[in-house]
Amino acid sequence: MTANARRIPLLDLTAQHAAIREEVMAAAACVIESQRFILGEDVARLEAAVAQYCGARFAVGCASGSDALYLAMLALDIGPGDEVLTAPYTFFATAGEIARLGARPVFADIDPGTFNIDPRKVVEALDRHPRIKAIIPVHLFGACADMDPILEAARERGIAVIEDAAQAIGAEYKGRRAGSMGDAGCFSFFPSKNLGGWGDGGMVTTSREDLAEKIRALRVHGARRKYCHDWVGVNSRLDTLQAAVLLVKMKRLDVWTAGRERHARMYRDMIAARGVPVRTPSVPDYCTRHVWNQFVIRCEKRDEARALLEERGVGTEIYYPVPLHLQKCFEYLGYREGDFPASEECARQALALPVYAELADSDLEYVVDCLAAMGTSG
Length: 378
Fold this sequence. Notes:
This protein has 378 residues and is of the alpha/beta class.
């Protein structure tokens, strides 16, 4: 970084914390005073709030977004011999939790404009793989996948749909909230998420009472009554302290999301107006609310662009440099380079820019100035 450059981190949680410090510290202190750290009252309150916010009947807190995926699949009896369809361009946990259950990940390519799974590729994969038991569409970077054709294909075959909404709380598809459309929706409260805690945390939403009841049991070793186990579950509970923090933050979530939406519009407008040769994300008409967990551009000289932005004090990240079908641990699936060209292209070109609500307009202008000055070709 140059000596006199300003610093704009990819995410600045200290700025967010400064605005809520007194309230969130008081909420944490109440939990400490109560000494009820596991599944306390705040967890139930957060579950009710998230269910209502997402348009689902039920929500069940758990230890992480990864565990949310695991618990949802476990509740649907997915295991050895089953196949589960998802995208190869996503965070590792989406496919990792499939494999952890002994099932086999099957991939379908993405639409490179939206970064989300392509429904046409979903149908093709379903026709080739009759053992698929569930589809996990990922609402990547804060935008819902094109759900109606995916839901229709699943209904026709009698298979489940689990929304990976880890990055998409509050996102909408044709007015329906992420986490309300499939059999289950899975959320993460990792600190970098739009609604982030002070550590790991997750949530499963569903409107199926049978699934909600089973997931509640599975998160405490499969017990519906203490020491009486109907299933072999896991220990995956949302800490009361995390729930207390998230309840404070949730009151401000829509305001923070509006800030992200505004900044994404500014980026798109400034990049277009200045003719900066990078590709900005597509926002189709069905995406009635994009919550912009990340603002990801694509440019052919991505690594060069990242190095130059870093030199000028702008934080960036690469989501995700190696698509899942090319990860060493999934070599046994038999996929090869070239099998999913859109995912592979995005892995080579994608670069996330700062978009959080606390950014100043001048910060965004500076980022675009840096991109324009470096002559990035896209």
